Amino acid sequence: MVKFFILKKTVAISTLLASSTFLTGCPGVGDRGWHDETTEAVREGQEICFPIKQSQGYIPTYLAINQRDTPRTEQKNRIVGDVVISNGMLCLPPDEFTPVEGKEYVVKFILKNGGRFESIRSFVIAVKVVNGNVGSFQLQDSEISRGYQ
User: Fold this and answer.
1) Structural domain includes residue 125
2) Burial of 70 by CB count in 10 Å (0-12 exposed, 13-18 middle, 19+ buried)?
3) Are the C-beta atoms of residues 85 and 125 closer than 8 Å to each other?
4) In a domain, 147, yes or no
5) pTM (2 decimals)?
6) Residue-number span of the structural domain to which 68 is assigned
7) pLDDT value at residue 140
């Protein structure tokens, strides 16, 4: 009788542990989030550029340029293959991005290096043109994923 009780309790605990792992998943790289980075926007000739620190080997894979407060369902984004990082700058030509004076834009892009999950970098930049000068402004908390500070 005691052996049966111990066996029954062991089965119950084993089932609980197995189902908990099944329901929550095993901890690993895929369970970790990453925080967005930000940088400034600058004009280089006719292009709008974003300086990227430690950009060696990274290529852009995703790009979204939308006016601020555009509902998520109306945002335009695309997979990129025609945008490159050169001399530490990701530059967008006028046919890709020509900000209008006084309007606020949120530019998002993802960089990938070598296909490993750890090598993904996500950037969010707020861009505005004032008196013909391109500049950046403060992002709202809902627009960027920040780490605890």
Assistant:
1) yes
2) middle
3) no
4) no
5) 0.73
6) 35-137
7) 75
